[in-house]
Recover the amino acids of this structure.
């Protein structure tokens, strides 16, 4: 028996798993309907795919939410996982699920997939026969992803960097790399049986003034980590920055570079897609304004040329949205996409060149690290601050880089820390900003720049 | 002047914490940032370790109240913290309550300065005034 299979048997044999039948699961995936695979839809799509977010604790409510989405003409269904399951606390998830079922009150902020198990969840997934995207935030997602794949969920979000640096203070980063390596291997192996399993990185990161160069570098690295294990379908992603031009530039650069870096590691046969997140920062409490913001995000996603858009709702500022509000965004977004025709082609060569130089310089520094494997190079680079994510709560992150918005609301790097931003680019970035202010007014500007959409 | 800062309890809201670090630095303080998700013991340990003048605890999700009840008891176990100025700020209640209700409560818990939903720079101005007055007296 291979080492991987031995590890799988350990992961899948415990009191939270009801007899995982490896052979049956393999058969199910081999014969699964193509419509369950988002990679199949990407291949044949004629429009941007629309996917909301959403997860409720009970099967009944999750089923009802999915019904609403299907009525609203959804392209990809979401399954958002609760916070206990994300932290591998299955006992608490189980207790809270029981309380939710008995009292008709939601005691979890998502669907406890491991607790429901794959036999139950698969019934829902195959009933709707739409691709389902798994949304979580789990550093050790081995059991969760095994359960998801066995349930017919073939779009798996996350990664060792993007699910750790924004979400955790001290989960060990080296462990996250190894746990996600397992996930990539499982996805790669199942991809040989039918259409490929799609992996998606979470480019929104902290959604707080993250400069495009950092986002793109992390997207490229998580893509490479995934492809080198044999994954054949991968989505890079980013979220609305606050400047339409910066979004368009970022879209152009990430598309070009993701292809280049995939080809450079001999993965020309892998399909790379682009996912765009509607505004991920603080939302206006005025629900009508929130709808305007969502609509604007859709227009920008179209300008960026995204393959999939992930939506927000008018209730974003007030908590977990109702199924009605959530389905409404899906219908509205589909409408906007339908009437949005004859888009102009905008290219900003200067900005593209600057961003490309920045990304290449950081990537070169990461890949030149003396470690023997890619994940160790990336680990060392985060540790040494070559990669630095603004507003990450994690202790390993350097927090030396400082970013603000320029007059056109582009995110600019005004302090680079250890990130090897080339001098020419750094001067260009700083040149766009008013740097004569003292730190106190700068901090006030940053507070304003974070709350730009409120 | 040395300041230890951090967000108390299982609170992961990091944005304001980073801004407090930047602002205090700009005002000439030497800042030791423990970051989010910090427990009371860690705050006091750090204050001893750094020989801090000020301990500035913040909270956004409001769980500070639960923790603050133990401040006096815990502080009394440390021998070298008599001169430590204790500050707490942020959103100091789960749900809603006015500053008139909250400030006296936290002063009773052992804080010298309490800022409930006060603008960052207003709060830091008040801290500097307080430290100035203390020096004179």
């Amino acid at each position: 028996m291979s080492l991987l299979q031995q590890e799988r048997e350990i992961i899948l044999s415990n009191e939270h798993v009801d007899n995982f039948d490896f052979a049956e699961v393999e058969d199910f995936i081999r014969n699964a309907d193509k419509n369950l695979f988002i990679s199949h839809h990407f291949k044949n799509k004629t429009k941007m795919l629309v996917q909301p977010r959403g997860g409720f604790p009970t099967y009944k409510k999750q089923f009802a939410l999915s019904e609403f989405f299907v009525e609203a003409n959804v392209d990809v269904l979401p399954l958002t996982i609760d916070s206990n399951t994300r932290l591998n606390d299955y006992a608490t998830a189980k207790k809270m699920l029981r309380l939710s079922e008995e009292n008709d009150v939601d005691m979890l902020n998502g669907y406890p997939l491991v607790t429901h198990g794959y036999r139950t969840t698969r019934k829902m997934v195959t009933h709707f026969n739409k691709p389902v995207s798994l949304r979580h935030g789990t550093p050790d997602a081995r059991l969760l992803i095994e359960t998801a794949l066995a349930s017919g969920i073939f779009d798996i979000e996350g990664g060792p960097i993007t699910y750790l640096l924004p979400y955790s203070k001290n989960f060990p980063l080296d462990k996250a790399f190894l746990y996600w390596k397992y996930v990539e291997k499982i996805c790669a192996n199942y991809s040989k049986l039918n259409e490929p399993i799609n992996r998606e990185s979470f480019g929104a990161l902290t959604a707080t003034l993250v400069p495009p160069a950092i986002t793109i570098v992390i997207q490229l690295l998580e893509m490479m980590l995934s492809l080198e294990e044999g994954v054949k379908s991968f989505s890079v992603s980013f979220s609305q920055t606050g400047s339409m031009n910066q979004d368009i530039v970022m879209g152009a650069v990430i598309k070009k570079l993701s292809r280049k870096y995939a080809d450079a590691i001999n993965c020309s046969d892998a399909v790379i897609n682009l996912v765009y997140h509607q505004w991920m920062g603080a939302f206006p409490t005025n629900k009508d304004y929130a709808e305007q913001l969502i609509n604007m995000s859709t227009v920008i996603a179209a300008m960026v040329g995204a393959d999939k858009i992930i939506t927000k709702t008018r209730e974003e500022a007030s908590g977990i949205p109702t199924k009605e509000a959530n389905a409404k965004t899906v219908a509205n977004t589909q409408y906007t996409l339908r009437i949005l025709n004859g888009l102009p082609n905008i290219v900003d060569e200067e900005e593209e060149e600057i961003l490309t130089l920045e990304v290449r310089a950081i990537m070169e520094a990461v890949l030149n690290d003396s470690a023997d494997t890619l994940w160790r190079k990336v680990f060392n680079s985060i540790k040494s601050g070559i990669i630095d994510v603004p507003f990450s709560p994690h202790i390993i992150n350097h927090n030396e880089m400082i970013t603000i918005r320029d007059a056109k609301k582009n995110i600019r790097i005004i302090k680079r820390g250890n990130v090897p931003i080339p001098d020419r680019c750094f001067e260009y970035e700083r040149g766009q900003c008013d740097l004569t202010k003292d730190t106190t007014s700068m901090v006030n500007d940053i507070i304003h720049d974070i709350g730009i959409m409120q | 002047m040395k300041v230890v800062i951090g967000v108390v309890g299982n609170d992961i809201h990091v944005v304001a914490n980073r801004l407090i670090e930047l602002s205090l630095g700009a005002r000439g303080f030497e800042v030791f940032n423990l970051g989010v998700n910090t427990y009371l013991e860690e705050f006091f340990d750090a204050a001893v370790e750094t020989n801090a003048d000020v301990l500035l605890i913040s909270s956004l999700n409001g769980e500070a109240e639960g923790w603050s009840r133990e401040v006096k008891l815990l502080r009394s176990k440390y021998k070298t913290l008599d001169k430590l100025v204790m500050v707490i700020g942020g959103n100091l209640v789960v749900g809603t309550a006015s500053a008139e209700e909250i400030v006296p409560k936290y002063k009773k818990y052992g804080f010298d300065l309490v800022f409930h939903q006060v603008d960052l720079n207003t709060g830091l101005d008040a801290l500097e005034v307080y430290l100035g007055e203390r020096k004179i007296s």
Observations:
- Residues 141 and 249 of chain A are 33 Å apart (CA to CA).
- Strands of chain A lie at 49-51, 77-80, 132-135, 155-157, 198-200, 233-239, 271-277, 308-310, 402-405, 411-415.
- The radius of gyration of chain A is 21 Å.
